[in-house]
Amino acid sequence: MSSTKNAVDSKTPLIEMKNITVSRKDRKILDSVDLQINKGENIAIIGPNGSGKSSLIKVITGDYRPRADSRDMVLRILGKDKWSLFDLRDLLGIVSGDLQQEYNRDISGFEVVLSGFFSSIGIYSNHKVTLEMVATVREVMKFLEITRLSDKLISEMSTGEARRLLIGRALVHDPHILVLDEPTNSLDMKSHHQFRELTRKIASAGKSIVLVTHELDDIIPEIDRIVLLKEGKIFADGKKENILSEDKFSDLFELPVKLTRNNGYYHAIY
Ligand SMILES: Nc1ncnc2c1ncn2[C@@H]1O[C@H](COP(=O)(O)OP(=O)(O)OP(=O)(O)O)[C@@H](O)[C@H]1O
């Protein structure tokens, strides 16, 4: 599944943010955020509801513009200060619950994945589908073990099946980073387990995973860096074993939290 078509110099950060502030309605929803993500890193961004996790992703996708009044503000993608939709496609594949809600029409599994090439919800008559695209969709679906969903309509799929297709949709561009924004919301125990196994397979294939969550159980063993967000600020950033501590979590969520560890996964008891 991985290729070198989008190769960047391994020293160039995929994402470089310095002093990023975003305001809405006179309130800072991100406040002087510094964050650098390097090639090959797998990270989890964790924080309570409203801490700014989705806003941070929206800065990367260009949906939210940071305040430009600070001279030392940096927002660089693949080493560039200015980037196009094509640069972004090379960089990011995004899977979120919001996106899943948009797929509320009768679209087949194959078309869901194919629509990743057009950043659209489904396929329309003006889309020029090439043989190469079709071959890539087949390859990605095989890798994700979802070929059997090709002809099934998304409206007739379980949440877990639909979420796997959205991963396929995110991967057809062979992006450097797969962003999973609260990916296990509304998945049952088995689908949750399958989703985590799939994420592990993708990380092993060389993609960087950026997981946005407030669930410790989502953090696959391949994720070794954790960024904690609180009230729009970076609260902590570092190696998993240093950041996933009971003290930090109790402070982050303002609640006494106990952490346990089993088979490379962490769990919170509160
Ligand atoms: N477009 C907007 N207009 C006004 N306020 C906004 C906007 N976008 C985000 N916010 C506010 O910014 C804060 C951070 O929101 P954000 O969605 O980034 O948090 P989050 O950590 O992803 O939360 P959750 O875990 O609940 O998804 C919240 O208080 C939210 O209400």
UniProtKB/TrEMBL annotation:
The keyword ATP-binding is assigned to this record: yes
Record keywords, A-Z: ATP-binding, Nucleotide-binding, Transport
Tagged with keyword Kinase: no
Entry-linked InterPro entries: AAA+_ATPase (IPR003593), ABC_transporter-like_ATP-bd (IPR003439), Metal_Ion_Import_ABC (IPR050153), P-loop_NTPase (IPR027417)
Pfam families with a match to the protein in the record: ABC_tran
PROSITE patterns in the cross-refs: ABC_TRANSPORTER_2
GO molecular function, a single term: ATP hydrolysis activity
Residue span, ABC transporter domain: 15-256
Name of this chain's protein: ATP-binding cassette domain-containing protein
Species this protein is from: Methanolobus zinderi
